[in-house]
TrEMBL record:
<dbReference type="GO" id="GO:0005975">
    <property type="term" value="P:carbohydrate metabolic process"/>
</dbReference>
<feature type="domain" description="NodB homology">
    <location>
        <begin position="2"/>
        <end position="264"/>
    </location>
</feature>
<dbReference type="InterPro" id="IPR011330">
    <property type="entry name" value="Glyco_hydro/deAcase_b/a-brl"/>
</dbReference>
<dbReference type="Pfam" id="PF01522">
    <property type="entry name" value="Polysacc_deac_1"/>
</dbReference>
<dbReference type="InterPro" id="IPR002509">
    <property type="entry name" value="NODB_dom"/>
</dbReference>
<dbReference type="GO" id="GO:0016810">
    <property type="term" value="F:hydrolase activity, acting on carbon-nitrogen (but not peptide) bonds"/>
</dbReference>
<protein>
    <submittedName>
        <fullName>4-deoxy-4-formamido-L-arabinose-phosphoundecaprenol deformylase</fullName>
    </submittedName>
</protein>
Length: 299
């Protein structure tokens, strides 16, 4: 059966406490699996204000109604308001996601800090940030994380290497076309297999070429009429598909089921692959349409 893995990035405290329960409900209704990746430290969303100087950021903000998606209070965390500690406040909710049968993993410790800085940081800085998230995950769930999905698709080689040291099975840190085994600049194996996001996200599409909340699902369904041999990975966000764009997501799930997809977690997709036979490739930073700045791309 064709497989489409649902990868859910949970960026904020509001997304955790409001978006996650709604997504669990809709996924159960469609009998769909999914992987929830949690931000486990402080919510400092308000510090993203400095991105206003990044090329393309303002146009994306104007298209995707950031205030409506995140809420005024969330946009003040880390600046005017102190950033709430997500993992500490919502540990019971996070365990409830796992207990409901969904895969859980690490998104980051501090979403804004990771997304804005990791690409240019040292191995020591990178490992320290990842260790904070890994330790918190262990305390919440009583077991180590099996997977990691980088915040904002921002990563460096030190992070890729550290994932293997942490005992992870696979990761989904960037964008690409098919599963692969990352290598370093010298061609040596690096970290664990990657299941890159293969499809564009709603916030990259809405507002472009006549696409809206009401019809963007039709565009995505056209992209999934064909299936890569290693399946599709679709990244959604608790703050978007779990809130204002729930109806859009509902239409997507129904459409994918009509197309014959089995909607699964990333670990289910990974277990369907022959990891030893995956092609090798680099993870490099580059740009994609609809998103400002650079992000990790499969070479």
């Amino acid at each position: 059966m064709k497989k489409l893995a649902l990868k859910i990035d949970v960026d904020t405290w509001r997304g955790t406490r409001e978006g996650v329960p709604r997504l669990m409900e809709i996924l159960k209704r469609h009998q769909a699996g999914a992987t929830f990746l949690f931000s486990l430290g402080p919510d400092h969303t308000g510090r993203a204000i400095k991105r206003v100087f990044r090329p393309g950021f303002l146009s994306k903000v104007s298209r995707t109604s950031v205030v409506e998606h995140y809420g005024i209070r969330t946009l003040l965390y880390g600046t005017v308001l102190p950033g709430p500690d997500i993992g500490k406040r919502e540990a019971a909710l996070l365990r409830g996601v796992r207990d409901a049968g969904f895969e859980v993993g690490i998104h980051c410790w501090d979403h804004i800090k990771w997304q804005d800085y990791v690409a240019g940081k040292s191995a020591a800085w990178t490992r320290a940030e990842m260790k904070k998230a890994a330790d918190r995950f262990q305390r919440i769930f009583g077991e180590p994380a099996r997977t990691h999905g980088a915040a904002g698709w921002q990563i460096n080689d030190a992070a890729l290497a550290y994932q293997k040291e942490l005992g992870m099975l696979y990761a989904s840190d960037g964008r690409g076309t098919h599963a692969f085994q990352p290598v370093d600049a010298a061609g040596q194996l690096l970290g664990v297999p990657q299941l890159p996001t293969t499809l564009p996200t709603l916030d990259e599409l809405i507002g472009l070429d006549g696409l809206s909340n009401d019809n963007v699902h039709e565009h995505l369904l056209k992209l999934t009429e064909t299936t890569p041999k290693t399946g599709h990975v679709y990244t959604l966000h608790a703050e978007l598909e779990g809130m204002r764009l729930m109806d859009t997501f509902d239409r997507l799930l129904a459409g994918w089921k009509r197309q014959g997809y089995e909607l699964v977690s990333c670990i289910d997709l990974f277990h369907s692959l022959d990891a030893a036979a995956l092609p090798k490739g680099r993870v490099l930073m580059g740009e994609i349409p609809g998103r400002s700045g650079t992000l990790a791309l499969q070479s």
